[in-house]
Amino acid sequence: MKKIFGLVLALAIISGGMVFAGGSSDTAASAGDGLITVGYAQVGAESDWRTANTESFRSTFVEENGYRLIFDDAQQKQENQIKTIRNFIQQDVDYIVVAPVVETGWETVLGEAKAAGIPVILSDRQMKLSDESLYLCWVGGDFLKEGRDAVDWLNNYLKENGRENEKLNVVLLQGTIGSSAQVGRTQGITEGLAKNPNYTLLAKQTGEFTQAKGQEVMESFLKAYDDIDVVFAENDNMAFGAIDAIKAAGKVPGKDVIIISFDAVREAFNRIIAGEINCAVECNPLHGPRVDEIIKTLEAGGTVEKIQYVKEEVFDAKNAADRLPTRAY
Ligand code: GYE
Q1: Model's pTM, two decimal places?
Q2: Phi, psi at residue 247, to the nearest 5°?
Q3: If you measure from the C-alpha of residue 25 to the centroid of ligand 1, how many angstroms do you get, rounded to a whole number?
Q4: Minimum CA distance residue for ligand 1 atom 5
Q5: Contact residues for 122 (Cβ-Cβ < 8 A; gap 6+)
């Protein structure tokens, strides 16, 4: 590894520019024990998806696998993540992994990581940057496609049930505003809905990707509108909250109100089987092994694809019971 690091460093000096070195140098963080130190700036613990994602990193980046993991939970705040990244730089970690809370506002801190020669890998959510060289690569879900898949599912469902000519009132529970998961899903959903004049989007509001906030926002929607036919919840946990609000309002989730959510965690499968959620668009959180593979490739002197989308499926009453036993999260 040292050899590659030296070579890259030499190239950096020759070209006079900064180059990311995928090296595990002997630093305070790596302490010369041969382990690769990875700092993971995690979003928070807002959802089942996030818990599975954290677990995926914690179980992958272990000493037996050659790593020392420094994990940080930003409690859904960008300013915490920026502090954490600075902290990782100060500790001279070998790699920084970030699941960015929101898309924008990262240039300064990533510039600092670049100046320190520490490669940054993005996982889960994307960043919108003026300079794409500020990060090495990204791996995660295709949120725009997920949003489109959700509306496609609704279109097909209505057709199959002879309801394609019905006028339907829709509400949208959005994720954290400005997060790429929210931006992509909202775009896919709203553009898809706009193509069909039978759909009326009554309201959209953030439920911050949490069950409690999802319930609260759904309660306010139900007070404001007495004829909601469809709920899109940009994650499962907000859908669980919405289900509670719908039941409390005396309506039957999954029947009186069609519920479509994102992530497809185990509990969403249970709810599909129980008839409370009609469709869950998958978003796979198991990025630990994917980031591990990226780092191992870099350590071996290889190159990686800049943008890596994970394959994702759509689940409903037709396939949920069959697939539940094989689900890992
Ligand atoms: O859908 C949600 C989580 O960024 C894809 O974040 C992720 C989203 C996921 O809180 O449950």
Answers
A1: 0.91
A2: -60, -45
A3: 34
A4: 181
A5: 97, 98, 99, 100, 135, 137, 138, 139, 140
